[in-house]
Amino acid sequence: YLMEDLDKDTVDHVPNYDETKNEPVVFPAKFPNLLANGSSGIAVGMATNIPPHNIIELIAATLLVIDDPRISIEEIMNVMPAPDFPTGGIICGYRGIKEAYHTGRGKLTLRAVIRVEDQEAVDRQRIVVDEIPYNVSKAALIQKIAELVNDKTITGVSDIRDESDKEGMRIVIELKRGEIPDVTINQLYKFTDMQVTFGCNMLALDKGLPRIMNIKQMISAWVDHRIEVVRRRTRFELAKAEARAHVLEGYLKALDHLDEVVKIIRASSSKDDAKVQLMDRYGLSDRQASAVLELRLYQLTGLEREKIENEYQDLLAKIAYFRSVLASEQLVRGIIKDELQELKKHHPSGRKTKIIAAEGEFNMEDLIANEQAIITVSEDDYIKRMPFDTFREQKRGGQGVIGMEMKKDADNVKDVYIASTHDYLLIFTSFGRCYWLKVWQVPEGSRRAKGKAIVNLLEG
User: Fold this and answer.
1) Closest to 391 (Cα-Cα) out of 406, 405, 403
2) Which of 20, 64, 265, 316 has its CA 20 to 30 A from that of 107?
């Protein structure tokens, strides 16, 4: 589709770097390749970063521009709402898309596709990554997560595995017992390439000059290019058809006077002599006379004559069509539309990248339910959080739940607090320093769990 009709004088050619061959200045391109596949590069003093788009949506947008060159960008966005990256992922927010489409510059926020799976057998959860942002290396991403876990920047992860296969990508991040998945997901977005920014800079060479163009200008530039390609191709095919028709006209003249032509050829002393006599006698051109002299004997039969006449009539119809195309831009635009529809039919492609509205500043506490919890602190300064319904009210004659099951010589509970998960804990040291924690930041544990050392939860 990029190089089709390259041999029909559709584009200009220039010498290559060492002038041993000629190369095309640009490909004929049956579709807007620059937008379909995107482009990224750095030149002297300028750079370009054009995102890829879904071919079906792009064709729909191009058809709109062909039908109405005055169409608005908003109408284009109705059929092509955003770029579509081959690695999938999620585009967060519409503002960056609108800026890129209207001005040629804009920032897109790309996120991985993440879901949470429950592991009821071991009472844990795990995060599964099915798609990662465009241009992000899976191996580098996994390595970065492992480094953050080892550095204790991300504390809720117990294991990372790459379970990708021919069915698709699958990165599994095992969480520790009691960890809140949304908190870890937010940390992954913040510290890793699970969330990246794609800076659109839609700069391209238009008629040899670098221009930053909006989405409509880029599509219109391709339409103008394609109109010129179709016209040049039509002129090439018209010239070829006219040349062939000219030869067939010579054949038909010769066949109309077959006996006389044979006599002239037999009586001539040489090929050149025969050619001159045919040109003088029947008004043939040099090319027609040469073609008649090269006719084979079987082509003088009645059946072959009929084939020549049919081919000549077909060529006359083609010549009339080619001339009408060159005289009407509307017909040229119709040809371009038909070619795009044909391409669309043979290459169906669904959108891979989802688009979601952007949230405001991401507040981790918004993900935590505001509910009561029980905080226990042991004599060795180990702390843990338990759901409030871990304990139940004892009715008359009933048997209560054992609050703590301590082993012999084990650490004893020093303090018990009841608080909301959104409350603050103030922790004072023997040196008079004060630290604070949110209750939800205290790791959740069972009645039998020891908890976590307070010193490991504090910074500094």
Assistant:
1) 403
2) 64
Contacts for 266 with CB less than 8 Å, ≥ 6 apart: none
The C-alpha R_g of the chain, in whole angstroms, comes to 38
Rounded Cα–Cα distance for residues 150 and 172 (Å): 17
Beta carbons of 354 and 130 less than 8 angstroms apart: no
d(CA 51, CA 39): 7
The residues facing 250 across adjacent strands are none
pTM (2 d.p.): 0.72
b (16+ CB within 10 A) / e for 274-310: bbebbbeebebeeebbbbbbebeeeeeeeebbeebee
CA 97 to the chain's CA centroid: 14
- Rounded mean pLDDT for each run of 10 residues along the chain, 460 residues in total: 91 92 92 93 88 95 94 93 94 92 93 88 85 93 93 88 90 88 90 93 90 94 95 95 92 85 84 86 86 80 83 94 94 95 89 82 64 88 85 59 53 86 88 87 82 78
Which residues does 448 contact at the CB level (< 8 Å), separation at least 6? 404, 405
For residue 431 the two structure tokens come to: 């040196």
Residue 116 CA to residue 125 CA, distance in Å, equals: 7
Q: Which residues pair with 383 in a beta bridge?
A: 377, 452
